[in-house]
């Protein structure tokens, strides 16, 4: 297993390579030593690290606001985004069926593997090192958090805006797909028929492209 690039991205060199291999082993590849138990532990370690960070950073934020910020940072698609940024999918060991179906691109598999990786680092070192790694991996997301801004994603904001004005919901359509299967770029259009508006968005997944298209329409609507 070649993981030098992954180690470079995480900034951590494992002492016990077996823990790293287990963190990257999906249950479809091995019913025995797989990453399910590590995922369970990593979920808690990650939640504690993120909770502590936002608690210290947003001193005047309410418990409810802190909970919503944390939820936005540890949800599945956010973890999958971080996993893609470090090329984690390239290193996950999958069974034949998952390989054929493109499991290395699936949000659930990527997010679970990231949590398992965090747990493996915690077990191989200590909490301080796990915290250092998580804050490094999530740095861009953490620096972009604004406690006063809406935590709703662009698609949700756009839908609620239209529903509140009794307008038809947006129509999303994939109009172009470029690149190889493991590295595709999607172009999606978003049309508001009642308002005569249309925009396009691009992303590494259909969902991201739709979010970008919705974001562009919100900008046109000055929201």
Give the mean pLDDT: 89
Order of helices and strands: HHHHHHHHHHEEEH
Strand arrangement within the widest β-sheet reads 1-2-3
Counted by DSSP, the helix tally is 11
**Derived structural class:** mainly alpha
Head-to-tail CA distance between termini: 48 Å
Largest sheet: number of strands, sense, barrel closure = 3 strands, antiparallel
Q: Give the C-alpha Rg.
A: 19 Å
Q: Give the domain tally.
A: 2
> CATH superfamily of the largest domain, please?
Ribonuclease III domain
Written description of the protein model:
- By secondary structure, this protein is mainly alpha-helical.
- The protein has two domains: 4-143, Ribonuclease iii, N-terminal Endonuclease Domain, Chain A (Orthogonal Bundle); 154-220, Double Stranded RNA Binding Domain (2-Layer Sandwich), CATH 3.30.160.
- It contains eleven helices and three strands.
- It has a three-stranded antiparallel sheet.
- Strand 1 and strand 2 (185-192) form a beta hairpin.
- The N and C termini lie far apart (48 Å).
- The model has no long low-confidence stretch (mean pLDDT 89).
């Amino acid at each position: 297993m070649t993981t030098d690039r992954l180690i470079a991205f995480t900034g951590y060199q494992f002492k016990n390579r077996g823990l790293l291999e287990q963190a990257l082993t999906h249950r479809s590849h091995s019913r025995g030593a797989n990453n399910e138990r590590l995922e369970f532990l990593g979920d808690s370690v990650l939640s504690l690290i993120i909770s502590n960070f936002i608690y210290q950073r947003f001193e005047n934020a309410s418990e409810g606001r802190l909970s919503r910020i944390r939820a936005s940072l540890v949800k599945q698609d956010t973890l999958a985004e971080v996993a893609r940024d470090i090329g984690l999918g390239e290193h996950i060991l999958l069974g034949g069926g998952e390989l054929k179906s493109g499991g290395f691109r699936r949000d659930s598999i990527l997010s679970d593997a990231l949590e398992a990786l965090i747990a493996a680092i915690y077990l191989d070192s200590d909490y301080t090192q796990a915290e250092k790694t998580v804050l490094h991996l999530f740095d861009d997301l953490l620096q972009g958090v604004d406690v006063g801004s809406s935590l709703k994603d662009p698609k949700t904001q756009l839908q609620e805006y239209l529903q509140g004005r009794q307008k038809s919901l947006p129509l999303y359509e994939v109009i172009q797909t470029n690149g190889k299967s493991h590295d595709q770029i999607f172009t999606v259009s978003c049309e508001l028929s009642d308002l005569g508006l249309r925009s396009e968005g691009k992303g590494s997944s259909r969902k991201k492209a739709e979010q970008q298209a919705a974001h562009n329409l919100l900008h046109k609507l000055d929201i």
